[in-house]
Amino acid sequence: MSPQAGARAWPLCHESAIAEGEVRGFDPEGEGQDTLFVLRHRGQLQGWVNRCPHQGVPMAWRRHAHLNAAGTHVQCHAHGALFDKDSGLCVQGPCLGQSLQRRPLRVDAHGAVFALSDDGALEQLKEHKVET
Fold first, then answer.
1. What's the superkingdom here (predicted)?
2. pLDDT tens digit string along 43-62?
3. Could you give the domains of the chain?
4. I need a labelling partner for 118 at 20 to 30 A (CA). Which of 7, 10, 11, 33 fits?
5. Distance in angstroms (rounded) separating the CA atoms of residues 1 and 33
6. Which is it for the CA torsion 88, 92, 95, 97, positive or negative?
7. In 113-126, which positions are buried (b, 16+ CB within 10 angstroms) versus exposed (e)?
8. Residue 120 CA from chain centroid, whole number
């Protein structure tokens, strides 16, 4: 996956830093809170905006803690909504049928993971920033 014209890329980590079934939050632009998280599921890295579609709050109850206790779903700390790890679709909770917003990622030939901004998601987050 290569960035489109005008896309910006923020370095996040090396792909080996996120093991299968793990999640890591990132604050690529220094906003003071994680604005995205990356999940390794079925061997693939997936990027998601760190915002619940129900209330706009960050997803994790503590840093890097975006999954439910069983590790089967992404969970919103604010109200317990559960999201499918493949699609981001809410499968249980008050935002049933809504989805998390994907964040495009790029992994270079050396395994460095970058968040891409070609969809404007990070810029949109600034407008909806939740103070902590």
1. Bacteria
2. 999 999 999 998 888 998 88
3. 9-121+123-127 (2.102.10.10)
4. 33
5. 27
6. positive
7. bbbbbeeebbeebe
8. 14
User: How far is CA 22 from each of CA 1, 5, 31, 38, 119, rounded to the nearest angstrom?
Assistant: 22, 31, 23, 8, 25
pTM for the predicted model, two decimal places: 0.81
